[in-house]
Design brief:
Strand order of the largest sheet: 1-10-7-12-5-3-2
Structural class: alpha+beta
Number of domains: 1
CATH topology: Jelly Rolls
CATH architecture: Sandwich
Number of strands: 13
Shape: globular
Number of helices: 8
Order of helices and strands: HHEHEEHHEEEEEHEEEEEHH
Strand content: 15-25%
CATH class: Mainly Beta
Largest sheet: 7 strands, antiparallel
């Protein structure tokens, strides 16, 4: 049986997201806000029910053939070319392998279990309350709204920053070895790149590095714009690591950037090109 009801998708006993006036709901929101305030990451353990998680895993496997896999050496800002304005050991000129795949948004049909979770108004409002914003909208990007990140054996997603202020992830299939999510909370700010601290992490330092205890079914809310983060290499002998990624925005009809879209999905659509012409930057960070 394919789970369709919200109670079949989410553990509403533990996370009563359908009862926004309840004490249980307020407790969940307060706990998530405290985690976000302390470390930039809120972990909601066992958020997705096992039956729904199994179906999401099946849907990822069914669509894995549409993944765009790529391998490139990049810096934390997704740049791949040397910048002569900086020295050879500077983070801008420190390039590390990223090897991974993404299932694009146009591979998911409306009504599949993964799509139902992504578009659930109860989940969107819960996330908005946790983040302290009035409303969240499903990311309108036709490729990067609903995606799945694929790390096959031997692959890794190296240290990087997100362009969005936050990301929402559900771990679906866990690697047997490797595939750990690590991050450095708030290592930079909107006005300070903090290159020195970033260089230390890229060189192998562990100052401030947090390794998150993620398990399948956990819902992660993560502020990745200012926190350096990565997924470590999946062992060559391991099963793949699969994670569903739900992207939301505080404004409707937001479309992603052309350069990063092409990096992650291997293509752009007319909607991306039009959005690029109209884009206004919210900060002066490298990206």
């Amino acid at each position: 049986m394919v789970p369709t009801d919200l109670n079949e998708l989410v553990d509403l006993d533990r996370y009563p997201i359908h009862q926004q006036d309840s004490d249980g709901y307020r407790t969940c929101v307060i706990e998530a806000r405290e985690q976000l305030r302390a470390s930039g990451c809120a972990l909601n353990k066992d958020f997705v029910r096992p039956v729904a998680l199994k179906r999401i895993g099946d849907e990822i496997w069914e669509r894995k053939g549409s993944s765009h896999f790529s391998t490139q050496n990049m810096n934390p800002y997704f740049h791949t070319a040397v910048n002569p304005d900086f020295g050879p050991d500077h983070p801008v000129n420190t390039f590390i392998e990223r090897s991974s795949g993404f299932i694009p948004g146009d591979s998911w049909e409306a009504g599949c279990v993964t799509d139902r979770l992504f578009r659930s108004p109860e989940i969107a409002q819960f996330l908005a309350d946790c983040l302290g914003v009035p409303t969240l909208y499903c990311y309108a990007d036709p490729l990067a709204g609903l995606t799945a990140n694929i790390l096959d054996p031997g692959q890794q997603f190296t240290w990087h920053f997100d362009t969005n202020d936050f990301a929402v992830t559900i771990l679906v299939d866990e690697a047997e070895k490797g595939g750990l999510f690590e991050y450095v909370p708030g290592i930079r700010s909107a006005i300070d790149e903090n290159f020195g601290a970033i260089a230390g992490v890229l060189a192998g330092g562990r100052q401030g590095v947090v390794s998150l205890d993620l398990r399948p079914g956990d819902l992660q809310i993560f502020r990745g714009r200012y926190s350096l983060h990565r997924v470590t290499r999946v062992a060559a002998t391991s099963v793949p690591r699969h994670a569903a990624i739900f992207a939301y925005t505080e404004q409707p009809n937001v479309i992603g950037r052309v350069e990063r879209t092409r990096q992650l999905f291997g293509r752009v659509l007319p909607a991306h090109e039009e959005a690029e012409r109209q884009r206004v930057r919210s900060d002066a960070l490298l990206d």
